[in-house]
Amino acid sequence: MGGGIAPTHTPTWGKMANAIADRNTPEYRALDAQRARARRAAKRAEWNMACRTCGSPLQYSGVGQPPKYCDAKCKENARPPGYLLAWQRANRDKARGYTKKWHQKKVAEDPEYVARKNAASRRPTLESIDPYGAATYMAVWARFEYYGWKCWICKTELTPETVTRDHVKPVSAGGLHVPANIRPACQPCNSSKNNRWPLSPDELKVSA
Question: Is the pTM of this model over 0.85?
Answer without folding.
Answer: no
